[in-house]
Design a protein that fits this description.
With 247 residues, the protein is mostly helical. 71% of the residues lie in helices and 0% in strands.
Length: 247
């Protein structure tokens, strides 16, 4: 979800450029910063699909998402996308209207109305994403939640994080996909070993996991490199917000 307050900020910027002295400015409308930097921005996930991918590739092997968790999270995200589609579409329409109104002299009242409508929609979308984050949390184990809490960006200022562009989203998705492809053999070997070690004694677990220790070390390094690569996709302003990728 990246159409939230970005749409309204863009419209406000256009309004500020208007030659109409009574045109709305940023000070004329208060927009909840949480709609600009959403609940998933705070966690370093940025938007639903990217958040699930970060959970998939970022969590350590010992607490990876199970197939059941993956399916439940995807279902939650699909439901979120369906239920918020109308608001996303409405914001797209409002952006076009705001663009036209900001260019027309004497349209300050119309622009103010558009921006107010947009702020209300942004607030709904921000609340919907916060609920999605809570619903996803409910699917996770205590160990996964503890790891996430310890790895969230500590100095994230979500209101200062500009939304990811389509190009950035595509780059990040490509990096995540490459991680899966390039590390498939190690991922499969470690998963098989961990599955085999369940319910065993410590000595038995150690014996099972010892052969895949090099693979686990390679995966740890690969995950660190992936996070660094995703960070490199961010703009200077996005990095300055402190909202770095989860992991």
């Amino acid at each position: 979800m990246r159409w939230t307050a970005f749409v309204m900020i863009a419209a406000l910027g256009l309004a500020a450029c208007s030659t109409e002295t009574t045109a709305p400015t940023v000070s004329d409308l208060t927009i909840d910063a949480g709609a600009f930097g959403t609940a998933l921005t705070v966690t370093g996930g940025y938007e639903p699909e990217l958040y699930q991918t970060r959970l998939t590739n970022g969590l350590p092997d010992s607490i990876k998402l199970s197939s059941d968790q993956q399916a439940k999270i995807k279902a939650l995200i699909d439901a979120f996308n369906t239920s918020t589609k109308a608001d996303h579409d409405s914001l797209s329409v409002l952006l076009r209207k705001a663009h036209d109104a900001a260019k027309t002299r004497g349209n300050s009242d119309a622009l103010s109305k558009i921006l107010a409508d947009g702020a209300a929609i942004s607030a709904r979308l921000a609340a919907a994403e916060a609920k999605l984050k809570a619903d996803i949390d409910a699917v996770l184990t205590p160990e996964q939640l503890a790891w996430l809490a310890s790895h969230e960006p500590k100095n994230c200022k979500p209101g200062k994080f500009a939304p990811l562009s389509d190009a950035q989203k595509a780059q990040i998705k490509a990096l995540e996909a490459a991680f899966q492809t390039n590390n498939k053999a190690d991922l499969d070997a470690v998963k098989a070993a961990l599955d085999s070690a369940k319910g065993k004694t410590k000595a038995e677990r150690d014996a099972i996991l010892a052969p895949v220790a090099p693979a686990m070390a390679r995966l740890e390094a690969a995950r660190k490199a992936l996070k660094e690569a995703i960070t490199a996709v961010l703009t200077a302003d996005q990095k300055a917000s402190g909202c770095f990728p989860l992991g």
